[in-house]
Amino acid sequence: MAETTSHTPPVQHKERAEQTTPERLRGGVFFTPRVDIFETDSELMLYADLPGVRPEDVDLRYEQGELTLHGRCRPRQPERGALLSEYEVGDFYRAFQVHETIDASKISAEFKNGVLTVHLPKMEQAKPRQITVRGA
User: Fold this and answer.
1) How do residues 4-15 score in pLDDT, each as one tens digit?
2) What is the torsion angle, in degrees rounded to the nearest 10, for the CA atoms of residue 119, residue 125, residue 127 and residue 131?
């Protein structure tokens, strides 16, 4: 069997604690959405799973180096008359400390099929720069 080598660093995986019960914060029930964060030379990209949330019910804020995500999940159907109900209703909440090299004025986000994608562009001075070396 041939060995393969990779030139990309291994992916860091955070320990996943299966959350069976929602957290109680701010007087309500909140779920912690699962996220993936990727970094390129020009930006950080955050992908968050928000099942059952509509785009107009997403509140995304950046303030003083903290990115806060809150998604309101509305009940699908009235509880009365349900034959089986395994889907819990509760809002999603998560906060991230973001490095100061992010250009807050250019943060953008889109929401499609229950996945929120947040683009956090880096400031120009934080981006890697290729330096040309000239011969003598």
Assistant:
1) 444 545 555 555
2) 160
